[in-house]
Amino acid sequence: MYFPDWFIVHYSYMITIFLMVSSLYIIVMRSNMIKKLVGLNLFQTTIYLLYLSPSKITGGTVPIIMYDKPGAIYSNPLPQVLILTAIVVGVATLSVGLALVVRINEEFGTIEEDELFDGNV
Amino acid sequence: MKFDIIARVSVKMFLPFILLFGLYIQFHGDYGPGGGFQAGVIIASAIIIYALVFGLFPVHQIVPLRYLRLMMSAGVLIYLSTGILTMILGGNYLEYSVLAHDQIHGQEWGIFFVETGVLITVTGTMTGIFYAFVGRGR
Amino acid sequence: MQSIIGMVLMTLLAVVMIGIIRLRNLFAVVIFGGIYSLLMVGLLLVLDAVDVAMTEAAVGGGLSTVLMLSVLYSTKEEEIRLVRMRAFPLFFMVVTGVLIFATWDLLPLAIADLPSHTHVSAYYLDNSLKDTGVPNVVTSVLASYRGYDTLGEVTVIFAAGIAVLVLLQGSRIAKKKVSRSDSISGSDSVSGLE
Lengths: 121, 138, 194
What we know:
The structure holds three protein chains of three kinds. Chain A has helices spanning 3-29, 33-52, 77-108, 113-118. By secondary structure, chain A is an all-alpha fold. Chain A has a single domain, classed as Helix Hairpins, CATH 1.10.287.3510. In chain A, α2 runs antiparallel to α3 (77-108). The longest helix of chain A has 32 residues, at 77-108. By secondary structure, chain B is an all-alpha fold. Chain B has one domain. The radius of gyration of chain B is 18 Å and the shape is elongated. Chain C is globular. Chain C is mostly helical. Helices cover 80% and strands 0% of the residues of chain C. Chain C has a domain at 1-86.
C-alpha cells in the first residue's frame, strides 16, 4: 500500500475515532439532557461511518444492478441494510428520550442533571 | 408564521409535490434508492410542514390522531399478515415466492405488501410523535 | 477524486463537532446537529450508500431537528456552565489515542477481495436479480432476504410511537386522576378532623 492510500485509510479511521470520542465526551461531561441526547445521536452517526467506510470498494458503484453492464463492481450492500435499520430505530429511540425530557421538565422544572441530583428543585 | 404570506403560498404549492415525491420514492424503491422508510418520513414531513405553517388545528382536522394510531398498528399488522398469508399458501414465514404463479412475481408482491406496511407504520408514528410533542408546547 | 471529497467532508465534520462541543446555546447546538447530518449525507453519498444517505437526509437533517426544536420550545434554551473533574478530558484524550492506535489493525479500506466482501454480500449481489427480480440489492435484502430484521424494526418503531404517546398524552389523564383523588382524600381528612 503506497503512501496516499495509507493516509486516506487512516485519516478516515482517525476522524471516525475522533468524532466517536468527542460525542462520548458530550454525553459524559455535559449535564443538560438535550445536549446529552444530541451527543447520543452523534455517537450513532459515527457508527454509520465505522460500518460504511469499509463497505466502499475502489472502482465500485452503488449496489443497484445494471442490466446492461454484467461484471460491474458494486459496493457491499449488507452494511448499508444494517445501517438503514439503525437510522430509523435511532430516531425512534431519540423521540422516546425527548419525551422523557419533556416529562422531567414538566415535573421538576429543569433539564439539568446536576440540579436534579442536588435536589434543590 | 400563520400570517406569513410567502410561507403559506409556497407550502400550499409544494405540498402535493412533496406527497407525490414520497409516493415516487415508495413505488420506485425497487429500481432506485428508496423504500418504505424514506417514503414514510417524507410523507410525515409533508404533514409536519403543513402543521408548522398553518398551525395544529387544521392539520388535526385533516389527519386526526385516532387515524394515526390506527395507521401505526395497521402497518405492523399488514407486515405480520403477509407472513401468515405465505404460511397459509404453503411456504415458510415471509417466503414470498408462493404468493404468485412464479417466484419473481411472488417476490414482487411480497416486497410490495411489506413496504406498504412499513410506509403506513412509519408515517403514522412520525406524525404521531410530532403531534405529541407540539401539542404539549407552551 | 472521491477520496479527496470524502476527506474534505470528514474534516468539516470534525470542525462541526468541535463547534457542538463548545456551544452553550441549545438552539445553536440543534442547528449544528442538522448541519452535521447534511455533511454526513454527502459523505454517505461518497461511500456509495444512496439509500442510507436518503434516510439520513430525511430523518437526521429533517425530522430529528424538528423534534428537538419542538422540545426546546417547551424547555430552556441555555445550558448551565458547570465544572467537572479536570481528569476527564485527559482520560478522553488517552482513549482517543488508544483507539486510533487500535485502528492500525482494522480492515484496510476499498479492497474488493476481503472476506467481508466475498461471502454473503457477494451472494446477494449475484443472486438478487435472479431470485427476486429487484435490481436494488439494498431493497431486496431489506425486504426479502432479511425480512425478519425489518419486521423487528417496524415493531420497534411502533413500540416507540406507543411509548411517546403514552408518556406525553396518557400522563395528562393520570395527573387529573391523581389530583382528583388527592382532593377527595384531602376533603375526607378535613371532614374527619371536623
